[in-house]
Amino acid sequence: MEHNLKQEKDFQKLIGNLLRYGVWLSLAVALSGGVIYLTSHAQEAVHYGTFTENDRSIFEVVADVLSGVSRADGVSVIFLGVLLLFLTPVLRMVLSLFSFIKEKDTKYVCITLLVMGIIGMSIALGFSH
Q1: Is pLDDT at 1 greater than 60 in this prediction?
Q2: 57 close to 127: Cβ distance less than 8 angstroms
Q3: pTM of the predicted model, to two decimals?
């Protein structure tokens, strides 16, 4: 019993650290992207009169972001920070799912899978309209 309580506290600490450091990492990445962008585009004027909608799949977006990061494109680095911020709670759900499976807690396994399914459908439908 004492061993399970210690494991549970260790797991809660792991999840807390994941969320804390995930947010800090995404902030650092986005901030560095902002610095890169401002150093290379400081004199450009922004034109808000035109808007171009990009109707692409999530896989194309992620591939473009990673390609831009490899070229040190500031906008892509900012988007990478946003992606990391989005993935932080998703990774928390995955870790929780494994914990619920290990504990054989079928109710919370089902709830977590349902939430992950909803998020997956939102991403798939949101990018494919």
Answers
A1: no
A2: yes
A3: 0.78
